[in-house]
């Protein structure tokens, strides 16, 4: 069952052809701006990885990867959920230095995703990762990186508005970032759900970095799930903005300073995932063979939705939808790609 809806007063700012042109321009602009601002080089990325390596992102630990055998190689493979771990290994293999990083187009299939305005079984994002010096493994460096990414978004929006005047009626993304922790939101609204807390906060703080996701809060529950083997739960977060079309908080990026051998050791135990210690990636990380890094994913379709004023993710990406979604969009005159 789909949770998709179309706001009653919604009308697309761009027609179908202009939407396609704007998507192409937006992606080129943002890639170039992000790469230059964070000193990232573009690399090629896998669509699938060997199941035995432990490189696939386990997300919340319950999502089933799309798996298949490769008879010619004698291996089993999984379509990636994200490239959170692959990127860190790539920085090691490609011998990147401190202050250098990579970004790539990540395309994934998340078969168990519940479709709605923001979610599809097809996922596209810019995955990026950068080598850190030990002295930069701190909250100040994390916050400065967040501000840089938000500035890249704002610069991209400014160019799009110049090229497509139809977008001038959309509000500008707020450049000033407000930082808040998941625990602070729980303390303020203990009776609200995590999503309701985000909506309540971001409505008044339209560009927010919500920190501390993955570990248990005072209530005993995490704000949201986060795999224990890439982000350090004390040094991570989500970039959230207020979406004026949907009138709700809107996640653009999940990111963070990655686990050190010490924090990986701790988080694997807390999450009940000690069996992962024997996997090749985890062995390398626990033994200190992999560089310290910061990284994240920035949703391509999400950013297109926001900057082009779209109400449904299917307006900016091609996917497969349930009958309820197709019917709701057809009734509202919304064209899905």
Automatic annotation (TrEMBL):
<dbReference type="InterPro" id="IPR004618">
    <property type="entry name" value="AsnA"/>
</dbReference>
<comment type="similarity">
    <text>Belongs to the class-II aminoacyl-tRNA synthetase family. AsnA subfamily.</text>
</comment>
<dbReference type="InterPro" id="IPR006195">
    <property type="entry name" value="aa-tRNA-synth_II"/>
</dbReference>
<dbReference type="Pfam" id="PF03590">
    <property type="entry name" value="AsnA"/>
</dbReference>
<dbReference type="InterPro" id="IPR045864">
    <property type="entry name" value="aa-tRNA-synth_II/BPL/LPL"/>
</dbReference>
<keyword id="KW-0436">Ligase</keyword>
<keyword id="KW-0963">Cytoplasm</keyword>
<feature type="domain" description="Aminoacyl-transfer RNA synthetases class-II family profile">
    <location>
        <begin position="26"/>
        <end position="323"/>
    </location>
</feature>
<keyword id="KW-0067">ATP-binding</keyword>
<dbReference type="GO" id="GO:0004071">
    <property type="term" value="F:aspartate-ammonia ligase activity"/>
</dbReference>
<keyword id="KW-0028">Amino-acid biosynthesis</keyword>
<keyword id="KW-0547">Nucleotide-binding</keyword>
<keyword id="KW-0061">Asparagine biosynthesis</keyword>
<protein>
    <recommendedName>
        <fullName>Aspartate--ammonia ligase</fullName>
        <ecNumber>6.3.1.1</ecNumber>
    </recommendedName>
</protein>
<comment type="pathway">
    <text>Amino-acid biosynthesis; L-asparagine biosynthesis; L-asparagine from L-aspartate (ammonia route): step 1/1.</text>
</comment>
């Amino acid at each position: 069952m789909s949770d998709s809806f179309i706001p009653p007063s919604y009308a697309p700012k761009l027609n179908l052809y202009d939407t396609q042109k704007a998507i192409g321009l937006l992606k080129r602009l943002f890639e170039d701006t992000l790469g230059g601002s964070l000193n990232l080089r573009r690399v090629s990325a896998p669509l699938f990885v060997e199941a035995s390596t432990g490189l696939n992102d386990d997300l919340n630990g319950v999502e089933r990867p799309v798996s298949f055998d490769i008879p010619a190689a004698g291996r089993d493979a999984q379509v990636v959920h994200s490239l959170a771990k692959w990127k860190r290994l790539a920085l090691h293999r490609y011998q990147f230095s401190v202050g250098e990083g990579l970004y790539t187009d990540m395309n994934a299939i998340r078969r168990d995703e519940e479709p709605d305005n923001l979610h599809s079984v097809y996922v596209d994002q810019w995955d990026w990762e950068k080598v850190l010096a030990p002295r930069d493994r701190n909250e100040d460096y994390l916050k400065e990186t967040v501000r840089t990414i938000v500035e890249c978004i704002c610069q991209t929006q400014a160019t799009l508005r110049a090229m497509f005047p139809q977008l001038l009626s959309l509000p500008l993304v707020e450049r000033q970032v407000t930082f808040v922790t998941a625990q602070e939101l729980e303390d303020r609204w203990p009776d609200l759900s995590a999503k309701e807390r985000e909506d309540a906060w971001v409505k008044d703080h339209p560009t927010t970095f919500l920190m501390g996701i993955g570990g248990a809060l005072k209530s005993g529950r995490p704000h949201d799930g986060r795999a224990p083997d890439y982000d350090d739960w004390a040094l991570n977060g989500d970039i959230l903005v207020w979406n004026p079309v949907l009138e709700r908080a809107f996640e653009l990026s999940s990111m963070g300073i990655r686990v050190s051998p010490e924090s990986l050791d701790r988080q694997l135990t807390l999450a009940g995932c000690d069996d992962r210690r024997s996997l090749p990636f985890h062995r390398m990380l626990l033994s200190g063979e992999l560089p310290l890094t910061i990284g994240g994913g920035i949703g391509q379709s999400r950013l297109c939705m926001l900057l082009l004023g779209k109400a449904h993710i299917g307006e900016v990406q091609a996917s497969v939808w349930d009958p309820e979604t197709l019917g709701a969009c057809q009734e509202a005159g919304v064209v899905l790609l």
